[in-house]
Amino acid sequence: MTQYAGMQTRTKLVILELIAGIVGWIWILGWIASIYFLIAVFAFDGKWSNFFWAVGISVIAKWLAHGFNYHKDRIAYEAKLVTSGVSPGQVRTE
């Protein structure tokens, strides 16, 4: 692997890690908001729609964070295979 390709791989990994972290924080904040809205529903006659929106956003953020982390791990694994001598064409089929 050339040095330029290695830098591209590291850049992709950093960007994916950053995006996964941001989406992960959205997931955490979504669950905190959903707990708040659930308490508001029972204690203060709040709206159920707020609770369901918070849960929905949180579930989607969790799914996205998992996907970004999987993609990051896959790119790192493929880069490791390429540096160990496997051709890029073979990496895609393994």
Strand residue content:
under 5%
Number of strands: 0
| Overall pLDDT confidence | 84
The helix/strand class is mainly alpha
Shape: rod-shaped
What distance separates the N and C termini? 18 Å
Order of helices and strands: HHH
Secondary-structure map:
Blueprint: H1 3-44, H2 48-83, H3 88-93
Helix pairs in contact: 1-2
Report a brief summary of the structure.
By secondary structure, this protein is mainly α.
Provide key terms for this protein.
3 helices, single chain, mainly alpha, 0% strand, 94 residues
Describe the overall structure.
The chain is rod-shaped and about 65 Å long. It has helices at residues 3-44, 48-83, 88-93. The model has no long low-confidence stretch (mean pLDDT 84). With 94 residues, the chain is mainly α. Helix 1 (3-44) packs antiparallel against helix 2. The chain is built from three helices and no strands.
